[in-house]
Amino acid sequence: MKTIAHAGIYPHPAIVIPAVGGAEQAKVAATYAAMQELARRVRASSADVLVLISPHGPMFRDAIAVLAGDMHTGSLAQFGVPSLTFTYRNDKELLAAIELAADREGIRMVGIDQRSASAYGVAAALDHGATVPLYFLQEAGVHLPLVHITFGLLSPDRLYAFGRAVRKALMRQKRQAALVISADLSHRLKPDGPYGYSAAGPEFDSLLVSLLKQYNIQGILRISKELREEAAECGYRSILIGLGVLDGEQVRPEVLSYEGPFGVGYLVADLTPDSARKAMHTATSEHVALAKKALESYVLQRKVIDPPPGSQLGTQRAGAFVSLKINGRLRGCIGTIEPVRSSLAEEIIANAISAGMHDPRFPPVTPDELPLLSYSVDVLTPAEEVAGLEDLDPKKYGVIVAFGSRRGVLLPDQEGVETAEEQVRIALEKAGIRPEEKYRLYRFQVERYH
Q1: How far apart are the C-alpha atoms of 228 and 102, rounded to whole Å?
Q2: How far apart are CA 99 and CA 304, in angstroms?
Q3: Of 3.40.30.10, 3.40.50.300, 1.20.1530.20, 3.30.700.20, which CATH number belongs to 284-370?
């Protein structure tokens, strides 16, 4: 059984969140898109717990801090958006197992709850090193128990050893974690950055990213303290713990983006082990298998099947489209742009039946056609409103046009649709909206399963 279902490095600039960054958010568009992609991958994984490592929680020189209350709560109030809140259940059973494993390594942990936070003069709430990555996970529909860890000022080897202790605890508990490594890189990339410019800034970032691509763990452990301090980085120790959690795994890192428009290095990287990637790829057929079973049961027996017990699809919620084709030609497509049922499994079942039986463009699927059908399932991210065509990419984003009660939807990467103008034109026609009407425009992304 795999222990790490997904692992990724996430930066934590609040400005990347549209409600915080406003017009400035466009300057970190690559980071935004990459973090959305990581969150989608977590949602598609088999993770049953989030293990998050932050640089900005309570910090001790000789110990690792963990949030120890029953619930984790936080918001983006400090960035002017108090309405963006976060609430997660603390996985206290896993936390206890990590403490035991760390103790065996001779590494001390300090639990921070409301009472001890007052004694230490620290906060027990989720810090922005946590809330920024959690924003993307929450938007993607990831709602799992959470263990929140803040690194201590221990040596690189001891931080790596603590990561190994986390791994041992996950194995003993038979848990599958999504590892969220919150880490900004150098804060000295530009003269107008937070700490001014130093040549050590780009040197550190270039070296770390290069070593990470090679997955040269010993090289990362040996990065000099002098270079790190001169670069004013804040994520190195988070990454060391994360690498310790991944100890013994085959990992081929994928750098999704790196940029530093505000003088701080923002790296987004997928460190998911090969075994978990392979399992995730195999598991994608579950979406299609469920759609196929749902339609066949209905056509042959007029029976609406129940969601499969124990499936990860029963714990997720998202809008989904089911498409049917015969010999490459569309035979039906029905979906929901946001969840209307209690689980993704129920969404797929209902939409598979509707695609086969109730698409007004086609007659109902017959029993003779069932062996000829091919299926695909598109799972949607939450839609976001955009200003215009310049924010669209028909290969990457689906589009929604809305005017009053009328809505038109077009999924991304459709054959023959090469431009945003063509994409919007088709969506408007589907909704019966005239181009001159003051319609609203939204985009979304999908995870497509064949």
Answers
A1: 26
A2: 47
A3: 3.30.700.20
Every domain range in the chain assigned CATH 3.40.830.10: 4-273
* Mean pLDDT within 191-196: 92
State how far the Cα of 245 lies from the Cα of 11, in Å rounded to an integer: 19
Which residues sit opposite 313 in a β-bridge?
none
**Strand spans (E) along 41-108:** 49-54, 64-67, 71-76, 81-89
Contact indicator for 412, 379 with CB cutoff of 8 Å? no
Neighbours of 69 (CB within 10 A): 18
- Class of domain 381-450 (CATH, top level): alpha beta
Mean of pLDDT values over 246-264: 93
Q: In what order do the strands lie in the sheet with 398-403?
A: 384-385, 440-444, 398-403, 406-410
- Helix ranges (H only) for 140-273 are 156-173, 200-214, 217-221, 225-231, 236-245
d(CA 53, CA 147): 9
The separation between CA 142 and the C-alpha centre of its own chain, rounded to angstroms, equals 8
Decide yes or no: CATH 3.30.390.10 for domain 4-273.
Answer: no
Residue 124 identity: A
Rg of the chain on CA atoms, in Å: 23
Q: Which of 103-112, 127-136, 273-282 has the lowest mean pLDDT?
A: 273-282
Dump pLDDT digits (tens) for 300-344.
999 999 999 888 899 889 999 999 998 678 999 999 999 999 999
Q: Which two tokens stand for residue 307?
A: 């969601």
Mention every residue, 6+ apart, whose C-beta is less than 8 A from residue 25.
15, 16, 17, 18, 32
Pairing of strands 177-182, 4-10: parallel
Q: What tokens does 243 get?
A: 């690498």
